[in-house]
Amino acid sequence: MYVKRVELTNFKSFGGTTPIPLLPGFTVISGPNGSGKSNLLDALLFCLGLAGSKGMRAERLPDLVNHTQSTRGRSTVEAAVTTTFDLSDELDLLNTLGKPEGEEVELASNQNGHTNGNGNGNGASETPNTEWSVTRKLRVTQQGTYTSNYFINGEPCTLTDLHEQLNRLRIYPEGYNVVLQGDVTRIISMNAKERREIIDEMAGVASFDRKINQAKDKLDAVKEREDKYHIVEKELIDQRDRLAQDRIKAEKYQKLRGELQAKEQWEVVIRYRQAARSVEQLQAQIQTGETEIVDLTTQIAAIAIDVEKTSAELEKLNAHVRSLGEEEQIALQSTLATREAELRQLQRQEQDLQTASRTLAENLARSQQEIHEQTQTLESLTQEQQTAETRDLATMRQQRDDAKQTLEVSREAANASAASAEAWVQEQTELRHQIDTLLTRLEPKRTEQAQLQERASQLARQIQEQTRSQQTLTHQLTEKQAEQTQLATSLEQATPQIQSIAQAVSAAEQEAQVQKETQTRLLNEQRDKQRTLDKLEAQSQAIQEAQGTHATQVILKMGMSGVHGLVAQLGRVEPRYQVALETAAGGRLGQLVVDDDAIAAAAIEILKQKRAGRATFLPLNKIRAGKAPSASTLRSMGGCVDFAINLIECDDRYWEVFSYVFGSTVVFQAMGDARRYIGQYRIVTLDGELLEQSGAMTGGSSGGRSPIRFGTVDAGESAEITTLKERLKVIDAILFRCEDALEKATIAHQKAMQHLTEARQQHRELQLKSDQVQTEIQRLETQQSQLSQQLQKSTQELTIAQTRLQVLDTEIPTQETQLEQLRQTLADLEQSQTHSEWQQIQLRIRSLESDLNQKELALRTVEQRLLQLDNQRQRLQEKIQQGQSRIQEHRTQQTGQLQQQSTLSNQQLEVSQHIAELQAALAALEKTLGSERQQRDRVDRQLRDLQTRQQQLDWQRGKVQETQGTRRTEVAALHEQLTDQQAELPDPLPEIPDPAPDLSQLQHELRSLQKRLQAMEPVNMLALEEYDRTQSRLEELTEKLETLQEERTELLLRIENFTTLRQRAFKEAYDAVDINFQAIFATLSDGDGHLQLEDPQDPFNGGLNLVAHPKGKPIQRLASMSGGEKSLTALSFIFALQRYRPSPFYAFDEVDMFLDGANVERLARMIKQQAQQAQFIVVSLRRPMIESAERTIGVTQARGAYTQVLGIKLPQSASI
């Protein structure tokens, strides 16, 4: 990607429309001063929105319009710049540009690359599909108003949209894509903090700052709500305290009223009892029965209490038994169940392995048995073949040879007698010769036919066996492939799960790392601030001891009786006199006022014991001041205010104390008035100058005033100490929450790691099984391929044999027909012969020929049998080899199974040992629970006995009550007399103390209670309910405050985490830029340099310095370097920033102006080297820079006041 073309229309010194094509690599723009060469870079800044008007050397944007156009009197003038990028090497990026929120856009096509020049277009230069263009138009009216619009590929857009698209192209507004003349100087002249902020922008610190500010805004909102709740809480506490007093009074009133009502009931009951005494004799028996019932009831109640106690004890024992063994037993049982499940799983695996081993062993034994049987058959066939070859074949051949020899002898004899019948013999001989010739041709074909028939039969059987084997292999292969497909699906499903779990592990680890870094940083800050606080507190305590305030604070904190306080606490002054009176009093403000000298002596003794320092005490019973001064003497003094004692407001009892403190000190308004009376009075001015009567004068800055002030309780803590304590308190809260978050993140990471390990283990097992199945599939495919080749070979051989047999089946019958015809002709000839001797000879010959044919047939039969035996041996050998291969595979599988079985046995042994330990622990736990169960059973039996006793007493009470019913019937008449009085009795009857109070005494108490109630009225009885409601609201508010506090702590932790991430991002950017700076500075200056933070512990609290060590010079900071060294150092810093955040193009504006020739050459080499990765457009007047460039653009300004551009052809490249 590179800038392909820049088109300027009425921009600054460019009039009309000037297209400037550019190429990748290193391009230099050169021309005379004032010719407008820097305006090209200003055009880039203007078009891409990378700088404001001042950054383009203009006061206002309208100043960028060509001044000739502005002076022509047009109503509106327009300047436009179009920058076109070539994205041919980043087509994927091209498709994403211009997509707000991921939507597609249409790109311009079939365009010529120039604007139409008449202003009726949309301002976009037409680009081919691989081009992406940006246009900015500036329209200025005669009134000076203007509008500025941006376009992307001809579509209007905002500056924000443009910067978003440029960010995708790695062109950053805060970056250093375009380096102007002042940028190098600005880096040199900026302070260290501004230089550090450049790294901040590169690291994206601003995004973290925004997040921190958002969190702080939320924190402020939470604080505001918390403050509101605290206000409401204070009001509720005040209301609750007020209601508490009313509640106490209401409770007391309610208690007295209840007591009055109870005693009124007592009065009714006592009157009823006095009236009932007359019938007590009649109810003696009833009373006796009632007593018995009461006794029984008491016993039942006692037993019920015992039952309740025993039940509670039993329940407690049950709970104890359950709690004693529940958690541990459940945990052990759960662990035991898990381990037993693992053991069962291992056993199942072992059983499956044993089953597979047995199957494999059976297959191995079957294969060995088959090989054994085939070997025996092979040996038998070999023996039979050897026997046939050594005995039968030799015998048959000998017999054939003998028959041939005998036939030859007979034929010689026939030839001897052939002279008598020469013609007949000649014809017979001719026929026999034809027959022999035909037999010579026919017999090999018959032998070949027999051999081919045997071979075809053998091949047919072999093909049938191979077909069956191939079907078996195909079935096995199909099963394995299905299993492999299932395993592949499982692996495919497991991979995203593992990735998801790995992402969760990474996220949890990242969260834990952030929390850990935040915790470490806060602990360091806590340690540093605690040290600072300890130091400040020690300094404060030392100051207090030096001023005497420490000892007084010790006495005040003890709360001794008779101690009134410090002198400063007991008086009040107007603010305008405070400085003067505090100066006049001096150290006496910190002296303690006590009742008498005994208290002072006791306090001094305490200070001695505690080694708390020294203090001055002013006992009220002993302190005496001098005579009160007369104010009349002061009236004639110019500038005099009054005596100091008269400006103090205090209780009368402390008058002597303040008279002692101030004496006859006079307060003046200013030093000039007071100087006239030096030596006559002790004088203090309103500004705090002190003039002693002896003539000594004290004054100056007021920064060292005593911390003791009028109206203050103590010396107080400094604002810095208070701030430190508040920060430490906040850090403690954040650390507590951070530890909780770190623990949660650690637990989440451990769980995720456990899940990841399990998932990976399962994935490895699936992968291992898949590899095994794949190996098995490859083996089966190899066997299938070999079998297919064998089948194809056998089929081809069978086809060839069958084809040959078809030929022989056609030829042999023809030749046999010819042979039969010739034999018939010979037979006819021989039958017509009358010579008996010849006939006998011929019969003898035919007999011998027949015997010879039989011998030869027998020989061919033996040879055919030998051929069959040889074919059978070959087939058996092939089967034996296949069986041995299967045995080898089975043994390899057995070895793997033995290893797996050994592994499973070790795992089972380990799990069994663990199970035994768990069972032992369970047995011990059961033993422990046994004694508790026995005790529980004993209490259970005791409870059943008590319940049985309770039932018996209840039955007895029922019998007594039944008897009482009979007795009450007898005294029913007596109760009628008490009916009227009984109607007045309260229901239920109150409990009356025994002995019952006297009636007259009770009536006296009732009158007293009524008077007390009347005296307490009015009483707010609603306070009882209001107090509870207020307390409930207060508790709810407290819960809300706790929630807000937790939310506030969470926000503080979030801020600290953002701070940690902010520091991490800055550190990464700083380290990268530092490494780049060291390498680039070494290249440019032949020296060494590095970046240096002013505060490495807190980089944001300080700045950034550029430290360089030019060759042959000591180490220097930027401020102490020469101009050229500063420029090289600043340029090294700029190159380091560019290398950290690379962009597709860079533009430099006379950055070599302060460098000498040698340094310009180094800079040119550096730019030429960097131009291999990005496009460089450099404005320069220096010869080394121009010579190093790949091409040069010449800029000049003609007499028409317009800038003109000219391309120059350089030796190493084509012209522009």
Query: What is the name of the CATH class of the domain at 2-22 and 36-173?
Result: Alpha Beta
Secondary-structure-based class equals alpha/beta
Going by CATH, the architecture of the domain at 2-22 and 36-173 would be: 3-Layer(aba) Sandwich
Oligomer: single chain
Q: How confident overall, as mean pLDDT?
A: 78
CATH H-level homologous superfamily name of the domain at 2-22 and 36-173: P-loop containing nucleotide triphosphate hydrolases
| Low-confidence runs of at least 5 consecutive residues | 100-128, 712-716
Assess the beta-strand content as a share of residues: 5-15%
> Strand sequence of the main sheet, in spatial order?
2-1-4-5-6-7
Query: Would you report the number of β strands?
Result: 23
Rg to the nearest angstrom?
61 Å
What's the total helix number?
23
Question: Helical proportion?
Answer: 55-70%
**What is the 3D shape?**
flat
CATH topology of the domain at 2-22 and 36-173: Rossmann fold
Binding site for ATP: 32-39
Pfam families: SMC_hinge (PF06470), SMC_N (PF02463)
Function: Required for chromosome condensation and partitioning.
Main location: cytoplasm
